Amino acid sequence: MLKLKNACIVLSLLIFGLTSCSKDDSTPTSFPIEGKWQFTKDGTITNNQEVLSDYQHTLGCTKDYIEILAGNILKLHFFENNATTNCVEFIDSGTWTRNNNSFVLSFVNEPNLNTEILQLTSTTLKIKFDLSGVTDVVVFTKIP
Looking at the domain assignment, is residue 113 inside a domain? Predict the structure, then answer.
């Protein structure tokens, strides 16, 4: 009788353990970060309140984007108009590292930018980081 009772307890715990632990595909660690990501929204978090607005791309130009490449290579593509030429492309190259939800961007002659991945799906990347005492948020949309 005692063996049957112990077997029932172990079986109950096993069933509970298997059903309570399910994989959530929306967690930031379940999708690869490599790819081209267009800037979509930016803003801040103040008093635990997120305030985002549409990212302001230069009118008439290719939209700004970031390339996160294999081999930890990172390229930021920005497009601007100047006095003589429209839609001049500027590329800032660097490196990146990722450890779960920690995403670190490194550029020459710049301090590392330590970010936290808030959301990562097959179409959306959302990060936050502290800069000069302000918590900034940037949302990207994956582009083919």
Answer: yes
How many Å separate Cα 78 from the centre of its chain? 19
Question: Tokens 């929306």 sit at which residue?
Answer: 26
Does residue 14 form part of some domain? no
Contact 92, 76 (CB under 8 A): yes
Q: Is the CB of residue 104 less than 8 Å from the CB of residue 72?
A: no
92 lies in a domain? yes
User: Residues 91-110, buried b or exposed e (16+ Cβ, 10 A)?
Assistant: eeebebebeeeebebeeeee
Residues 31-61 pLDDT 10s: 899 999 999 999 999 888 999 999 999 999 9
H helix runs in the chain, sequence order: 2-20
In a domain, 88, yes or no: yes
Please give the residue range of the domain that contains residue 124. Answer: 27-143
Q: How many structural domains comprise the chain?
A: 1
Neighbours of 111 (CB within 10 A): 7
Three-class SS of residue 35? Answer: strand
Instruction: Report pLDDT digits (tens) over 99-129.
Output: 999 999 999 989 999 999 999 999 999 999 9
